[in-house]
Amino acid sequence: MYREPEIAEDTRQRMLAWRHDIHANPETAFEEHRTANVVANALMLMGIPVHRGLAGTGVVGTLTNGEGPSIALRADLDALNMTELGERAHKSTCVGKMHGCGHDGHTAMLLGAADHLARHKPFKGTVHFVFQPAEENEGGGRRMVDEGLFEQFPADAVYGMHNFPGMPRGQFGIRTGTMTAFLDTFEIVITGKGCHGAMPETGIDPVMISAQLVNALQTIVSRRVAATDSAVVSVTQIHGGDTWNVVPESVVLRGTARTLDAAIQDRLEAAMGQICAGMAQTHGAEVALKYMRGYPGVVNTAAETAAAAAAAASLVGEAQVHTDIKPAMGSEDFAFMLQKRPGAYIGIGAGEGPNDPPIHNPYYDFNDRILPLGAAYWVALVKQQLSVA
Fold it and tell me: Rounded to the nearest 10 degrees, what angle do helices 371-385 and 302-316 cross at?
């Protein structure tokens, strides 16, 4: 079963225009001033009161229709620091920045839902449209929460959505419990003793130690975490040395660690500390680990997951809503909102074929064909949760 979304044609055209405009003018974390203006102006033209300033560039629109419950719907605003390689009329005009994750589409879909709900008001209660900055790496969701999001805009539940290019268009995916990974980052500074490259015996070589350390870190997942559990430790940067014939004084390693369980997260950090200490003792060097806890996992609550799945099923049928998808090793700062309120995060299928570029790929572009369905999902969820009956 597939029911054509009830989004009016003029709203569909506005969503397309908003999406292409935001895509062509990408802004990264906490710099989304133009994007925030586009969102705020659109909401005000709909007659929706707007609040600005949470997390710097955050925007919240509030639509109330009588007394009743309240829910918050969240979209993200920011782009990525990467260069777009695909050729399209709305290609990024900002060198080194692009909407490579689809936040332009997320924003357009939520604006489309706001437009429909403001026109028809098929609910009783309050809807908060939360447009959050800095989802990519910088924790804009945490800042919005810390600066009083739910104190200023009380909500009984909060919901989020992300496009999934790997899932066919017309499908949705969700699960109760952990949806995305805990995200941590680390920096390891290896300090040895610099010397002539022809006489390494006179120094302590941090380059050699770094090579052993990269290999040793991989044993954490393969030998200290059960095969039935999920964890990733990736060294993504190595910096050291300036010339061919000098063993440098120090080398810096940086990377990321991911897991789906807080207990395993603790185990990863402890194991990395043990390996660094052992490597330092073995080679007579100093190996300093800085382990930084980042985003927690997105954990969907049961009742809200069921509500999100039911809203999606009302549009595409139960068979097209997968309610036990595998958790993703990617991360999402929507997790900070779910730590404060019950809620659910759902994936909307955006795939047209096996060769579709994934998110964070320089050829990726949000699939405009899902704009009406995404907006209709938000509308169906509001009608369900804030029923007029």
Answer: 130
